[in-house]
């Protein structure tokens, strides 16, 4: 019989709900355990979601010998610390985005993965979806002509008072929370890293941004512009402009089972329909392929490092009000 990977949820974070269904849908995974900072919260969460084991601390979860994979859904400032602890405890880790807040954190995480021989991947779920793969294929096939410009946005109205997203010391800010998506998307489409970046931000009392407007310049005359924010209505899109056509992706980061993207050539719009599987199943199956079949994870740590580098450079540019070269 094929091996089943036992997963443990590190915390009772809201995002766990997105993972629970795919962890049950995959034939290669079993949701075995959840940990919380208090036993009452772990037990009530385990009861609510029918999870067999509840742990009263994150440390206890990592000590559970039956757990193979940890899903790290902690606030951003705890990603590095607990991912490293999990790797050292012999667990594979799927870590939520943004995987790290500094390059030092990222390098320490990569070292822990190397030393432990365990898999570590960042949970950018959109990267595994059929729509994303189709967009990349279209651009690479030359369907748009030569790539010129990518525009994107990801905003929503953040109402969760006291949430880590508002706190700079917890890795808060819109660029870390949602700006990381258009940045990641553009780098994937270009297939290269930016050479210069610039950005403006509006900051709140804690020092983190509640809106960010940024741009990145790549080699060969390719440019990218995006905005992210916590105080606008829910918006997300990617537009990819080539010399011969434009591709509009109205729902780039959270595509569903049925999706449409639009190829505009000389004002004639072709609708391309794409069927996809459940959004978060892709990252679960990718993790299984990496652990069970020795396949490299689709999102490499080199890729994650480059995304972190771009975000840090954009923040530096906004703070210094000067462009930053990479
Ligand atoms: N990929 C996606 O679609 C997606 C969507 C949303 C969020 N995310 C990412 O997932 C992560 C979690 O986001 P979320 O909104 O789900 O988090 P959340 O609901 O705010 O929960 C975070 C959990 O972390 C634990 N925690 C440990 N120390 C904490 C502290 N000092 N303050 C607050 N909580 C603490 C708590 O669990 P216990 O009380 O059980 O210990 C808490 O429930 C973030 O990295 C975020 O960027 C990804």
Describe the structure in brief:
With 326 residues, this protein is of the alpha/beta class. The protein has helices at 16-25, 39-49, 58-62, 79-88, 103-116, 130-140, 174-190, 281-293, 301-320; strands at residues 5-10, 29-35, 53-55, 69-72, 92-95, 120-122, 147-157, 196-203, 209-218, 222-229, 231-242, 246-249, 258-265, 268-275, 324-325. The protein has two domains: 5-123, Rossmann fold (3-Layer(aba) Sandwich), CATH 3.40.50; 126-281 and 308-325, Dihydrodipicolinate Reductase, domain 2.
Describe this structure in words.
By secondary structure, this protein is an alpha/beta fold. It has two domains: about 5-125, Rossmann fold, CATH 3.40.50; about 125-280 and about 310-325, Dihydrodipicolinate Reductase, domain 2 (2-Layer Sandwich). Helix content is about 35%, strand content about 30%. The strands form two sheets. A nine-stranded mixed sheet has the order 14-13-12-11-7-10-9-8-15. The longest helix has 20 residues, at about 300-320. The protein is globular and about 60 Å long. The relative contact order is 0.15. Bound molecules: NADP nicotinamide-adenine-dinucleotide phosphate. NADP nicotinamide-adenine-dinucleotide phosphate binds near residues 12, 37 and 164.
């Amino acid at each position: 019989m094929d091996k089943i990977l036992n997963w443990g949820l590190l915390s009772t974070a809201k995002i766990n709900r997105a993972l629970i269904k795919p962890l049950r849908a995959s034939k290669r995974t079993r949701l075995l355990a959840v940990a919380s900072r208090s036993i009452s919260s772990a037990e009530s969460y385990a009861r609510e979601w029918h999870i067999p084991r509840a742990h009263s601390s994150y440390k206890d979860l990592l000590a559970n010998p039956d757990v193979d994979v940890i899903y790290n859904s902690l606030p951003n400032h705890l990603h590095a610390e607990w991912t490293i602890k999990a790797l050292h405890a012999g667990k594979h880790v799927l870590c939520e985005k943004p995987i790290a807040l500094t390059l030092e954190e990222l390098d320490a995480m990569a070292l822990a993965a190397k030393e432990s021989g365990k898999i570590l991947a960042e949970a950018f779920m959109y990267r595994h979806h059929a729509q994303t793969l189709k967009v990349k294929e279209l651009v690479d096939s030359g369907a748009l002509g030569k790539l010129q410009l990518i525009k994107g946005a990801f905003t929503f109205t953040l109402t969760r008072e006291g949430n880590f997203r508002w706190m700079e010391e917890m890795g808060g800010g819109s660029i870390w929370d949602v700006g990381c998506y258009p940045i990641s998307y553009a780098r994937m489409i270009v297939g290269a890293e930016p050479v210069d970046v610039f950005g403006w931000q509006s900051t709140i009392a804690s020092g983190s941004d509640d809106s960010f407007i940024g741009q990145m310049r790549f080699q060969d005359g390719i440019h990218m512009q995006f905005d992210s924010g916590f105080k606008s209505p829910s918006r997300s899109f990617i537009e990819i402009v080539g010399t011969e056509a434009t591709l509009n992706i109205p729902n780039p980061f959270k595509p569903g089972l049925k999706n449409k993207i639009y190829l505009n050539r000389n004002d004639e719009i072709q609708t391309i329909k794409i069927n996809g599987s459940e959004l978060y199943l892709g990252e679960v199956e990718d993790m299984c392929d990496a652990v069970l079949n020795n396949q490299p994870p689709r999102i490499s740590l080199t890729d994650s490092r480059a995304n972190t580098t771009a975000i840090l450079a954009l923040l530096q540019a906004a703070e210094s009000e000067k462009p930053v070269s990479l």
